Amino acid sequence: MRYILSIDQGTTGSRAFIFDKRGRIVSSAYKEFRQIYPKAGWVEHSADEIWRSVESVVKTAVIKAHAAPGDIAAIGITNQRETTVLWDRKTSRPVHNAIVWQCRRTSDICDRLKSKGYEGIFRRKTGLVIDAYFSGTKIKWLLDNVKGLKNRAARGDICFGTIDSWLIWKLTGGKAHVTDHTNASRTLVFDIRNKRWDTRLLKILGIPKKILPKVLPSGSVFGETAKGACGLAGGIPIAGVAGDQQAALFGQGCFNPGEMKNTYGTGCFLLLNTGSRFISSKKGLLVTLGCDSKGRPVYVLEGSVFIAGAAVQWLRDELKLITDAAESGRLAGRVSDTNGVYFVPAFVGLGAPYWDPSARGMICGITRGAGRSYIVRAALEAIAYQVKDVVGAMEKETSRRIRRLRVDGGAASNDFLMQFQADILNADIVRPEVTETTAKGAAMLAGLTVGFWKSNSEFKEALKIGKVFRPRMKDKRRRALYAGWIKAMERARYR
Fold this sequence. Notes:
The chain has helices spanning 47-64, 107-115, 119-126, 135-145, 149-154, 163-171, 181-184, 199-205, 244-251, 309-317, 325-332, 372-398, 415-425, 437-450, 475-493, and strands at residues 3-9, 13-19, 25-32, 44-45, 72-79, 85-88, 98-99, 158-161, 178-180, 190-191, 196-197, 214-216, 223-224, 237-243, 260-264, 268-275, 286-291, 297-305, 342-344, 362-364, 404-408, 428-432, 465-469. It is of the alpha+beta class and 495 residues long. The strands form seven sheets. Strands 17-18-16-15-21-22-23 form a seven-stranded mixed beta sheet. Strands 3-2-1-5-14-13 form a six-stranded mixed beta sheet, sandwiched between helices.
């Protein structure tokens, strides 16, 4: 058995990667799927369409690798977190479109929970804030709004899962209803101190425990493939599962307390490994679960930015200012600044450290001379400014200055963005040779679990540094630019 298959199921598309014994990518495949917007601020996916996209990319990646059915030693899965699927236990049919992590439809539910004084108990038990971002209120909305669903759930006829659970269910032919600690910790109903579903929180939200999956450490055997699933042989162990950001932390080799990374994907996510230490944040950060070098749960401090690469996608798909993401860096580099333009991409509110669901996106400072390059540059700079907001909160929380930041994700390949990030943070930005660290983390977990790899030391080559971006902006300019960002953001938050 020569390979590990890693499935990376993201917000806008699904990827599959084949890794060899040296941790190198042998082949990969990618397929986008629909983004569904029923109302302003609502975001859905078709769970069946997600599954079909996964089937497609797995088959393609295996063929491109010239792999035989017996060549796959194990499967790792990493996924968009918080996105919520409910399906019928007998038919495996989703009862509704998946409600995506970006969706704000449950903001009113969150406001009611806060008004009843529940913020403290949710914060203490889950490490999270009460926000529409997380799965718990999405489950409640579905139970309350899909006809007959509440009774079906109470009878145990319905399964809940984040995307990892849905994929495992489909891969195993409906035999395994499971998740891992990292994904469970993002649901708003999982006690991350005691590592179990919390009865009190489930009661507050009206969620029957019968619908919940079994929770295992990230480095575990979650089930085995049914013959023919995704064109694979039967009996292949699904042996590593982690939410995308925790998988990226693992894939960056951040196994020890104090190590951190930032992922530039649809959103931006800065994670700091705090080991066995639960740091109760007072600066708008989250406490969640990651995994140690063996796949066992550890605590992580996280800052979540909702819209990052999605802003570039918006420029491409809605405004038609660019034809592909790579063009954004070239356009931004044509001008020396934004000519006073600021872009606040609060399409679904603001995440850390503000947690403002009412904020909305805006472009301000526009003059007659503000052409396409200036707006594109402002969008890229906005990603870096939002990361600076989170880094500032992280520095205050931990009382330590961040001088070096490991990065990954699709937008990390944008040299303009990485240099501006180094400049505005006044810190070194370290980009690995292989930026697909999310998929790599899931592969590493699976390979270590089944003994395909014996230790993390076998990944030294896969963790090689590709490029370091060092700050070169003067302090006065850095302060002036960031002050302008703060003013723009305050306008976006004004209601």
